[in-house]
Amino acid sequence: MAQKYNPREIEKRWQQKWAADHIYEVKEDSRRPKFYALTMFPYTSGDLHIGHWYTMAPSDVYARFKRMQGYNVLHPMGFDAFGLPAENAAISHGIHPYDWTMKNIENMRRQFRSMGAIYDWNREVITCLPDYYRWTQWFFLRLYHAGLAYRAEAPVNWCPRCQTVLANEQVVGEGFCERCNTPVTKRELEQWFFRITKYAEELLDHSRLDWPERTKLMQKNWVGKSEGAEICLRLGHEGVEQKEIRVFTTRPDTIFGVTFFLLAPEHPLVCQLTTPEHKAEVDEYIAWCRRQNEYERVAMDREKTGVFLGSYVVNPLNGERVPIWIADYVLPSYGTGAVMAVPAHDERDLEFARKFKLPVRTVIVPPDSTGEEFTEVYTGSGTMVNSGEFNGLPSEQGYEAICALLEEKGWGKRTVIYRLRDWLISRQRYWGAPIPMIYCDKCGIVPVPEEDLPVLLPPDAEFRPTGESPLKYCQSFVNTTCPQCSGPARRETDTMDTFMCSSWYFLRYTSPETGDAPFGATKMKYWLPVNLYTGGVEHAVMHLFYARFFIKALRDMGLVNFDEPFTRLFNQGTIIYRGAKMSKSRGNVIAPDEYVAELGADAVRGYLMFIGPWELGGEWNDRGIVGVSRWLNRVWSLITTDYVPTHRGVVDPEAEKEFLHSTHKTIKEVTAELEKFRFNTMLASLMEFSNYLSKVKESGVVSDALWREAISYFLLLLAPTAPHLAEELWTRTGHPYSIHNQPWSEYDEELAREEEITLVIQVNGKLRDKVIVPASVSEVEAKELALGRERVKAYTDGKKLTRVIYVPKRVVNIVVAS
RNA sequence: GCCGAGGUGGCGGAAUGGUAGACGCGGCGGACUUAAAAUCCGCUUCCUGCAAGGGAGUGUGGGUUCGAGUCCCUCCCUCGGCACCA
Known about the structure:
Shape: globular
CATH superfamily of the largest domain: HUPs
CATH class of the largest domain: Alpha Beta
Strand order of the largest sheet: 2-1-24-25
CATH architecture of the largest domain: 3-Layer(aba) Sandwich
Structural class: alpha+beta
């Protein structure tokens, strides 16, 4: 009896040999086409869980497949290492974020090694190390000098009790501090922004990208382009310096339906436009709004709130005097922070009008209107009414005519606005790349000179359970000298959003050893752009969007020579456990280690692929994992036990033909399914083939040579999926090391083609019979055959034949009158 | 609330508008074994029938089509993302 399949022993042995032989080390090579296969790097939370493997294992399979196809494949790995959890660990466990992070990385690296991926660890990138973050700072300076970084006030979540800034994640429930349960308020702070909106229009263009439609759509909605008009409302109010309010509308055609104007409570004119008798009420409402968190304010199902300011403004189109209100559903950050309310044609405005008994005036009637009053909001287009000289016009024409009039009279203009806001990158935290800026009383804001980078994080900062960023209290960090006047100055104590680190890490992988630049220009040019980027669908908007912005900004500075970082993108779905995404902070993680120890990495890799379509993800359960493990065991015994031909010199040509057909059909299917990332059906094809091989082995009908050929094809197809087992069996069947340096198998189209098909015969769309026919069957033959079948006649005899539909190689549908 | 995706056997899932349930798990029966595990063979959507067969069936209710899991509309549920599209 042959030796048993022992994944533990095999996997360890091959991992060691591959490492010792450096077979996965990557060099630039002009003789082969390059392929940059990038997988989103993990956050250093401490352990790799099943969710990480779900991201990493199938992408490793694909990278191995490309490698066998002859590409020079770069498939690197690294760690996204700055962020809030490290700092929380520091506060609650007294361990320094650096130590916590590096310890986690060590553990995660060990787990990665057990997976058997082709990562070239010489290229590892860790974002929290000074030789990485000095370049993150360098990019900040470049963006600043390019006019893309600026300072402005922006609200942060503030816990009045902890006296600290809270991340959105730390605000729980209906706006409470996660530590002390105190209601969270907003506080305005001067912070740094990147002018991402400058690229809004270009970021909408995905036309040259091979990306999933859903991801492109999410990004498009994120940019949120709206075309409309900006209208100036003249203010002649006493004591108000500003002479106009600007409102934005996408529906200038409804302007005659305006019955009130609304400002965001934060709008700068609110205070001046409030009459003394309304001041108390307005102040109270504004204070109440400041306590609202984003989530509450955004909820559409809650009751509308707002207050009247006591003042009015004139609608330029009809000269009407219209009241000004404030309402929290008007957002200061969108458009001009002021809107014209048209309750007849906007759902939210109608709700507001009903609550506060404000008038509603219909100005558009639907094309099919019979003239009766309608009580529901109508947001479509139609014919204009109650609109003065524009009455009777279709609203599309009215839109144009009113815009033209606004522009002619100087009352407003056509404009485009975006929902996209500039990227706020300041974080009031320790564990991030310090923003390399200095504040000097004499010189103002002064950037740190490039040659002084990195601005190092002080190792001796204190982590208090409450209080603001530890950097703020670290005197040795804060106090510095001005690079311009050498006088005393203070450092910026905010650090950068970690999305900044992950916006350029893929450039660093190409040349992580580079000391005088963020990357080596020649190597970067060889590898970039990334041919295939894979990662969780949860990053469809923010990370992927920021990285695209970054590359466009770098392009405009002349640092890179391409427009888009990721030519092809695949977003895999999310692994759910106990009703939510697996994450350490939620505490619903499943570690792969036990499964690996028991069944082997090849089985775990295989199971994660077999579970379902990669792009869908799904609820984790391990019910089927033994199935993949058993299959690998069957493969082991299929190949390690001898094949005994039974034909005694005279082979059955039909049997051999079928055998070759089966082999080449499998090569064709597996190749196509890998190319489409259909790992689940790729595995099913491999299983079907190995089941077939078992049957053939039992009968022994094919020659020994043919059998051996089929086995080596099978192992080559298996190699990306189960790299350890395939390598072991490759060696055992007498092939030269290593299977992972072999070319991918080509199939013979002639042999892969089906010779016989099952023709389905339907009567009135119902399956009534099946018949096996040669694939070359003609339409006439098929129809004749179908009509002549006994089982079919039972349903057609005595009935009138109306049609016979023929779908080549599939169906004959006989339609009879009933 | 908004944006995006998904609902198919007991379970994970398969199916260019053309045989619904591939492949695997679980279950049932059998072989091997003193026995168990492992392994191998067979059956396994539901109802009806001795059988051949017949009928129903892809979250809900409609529609388009010779034919719908697949396309269109309504609603319900689950998951991912989020910074009232004025």
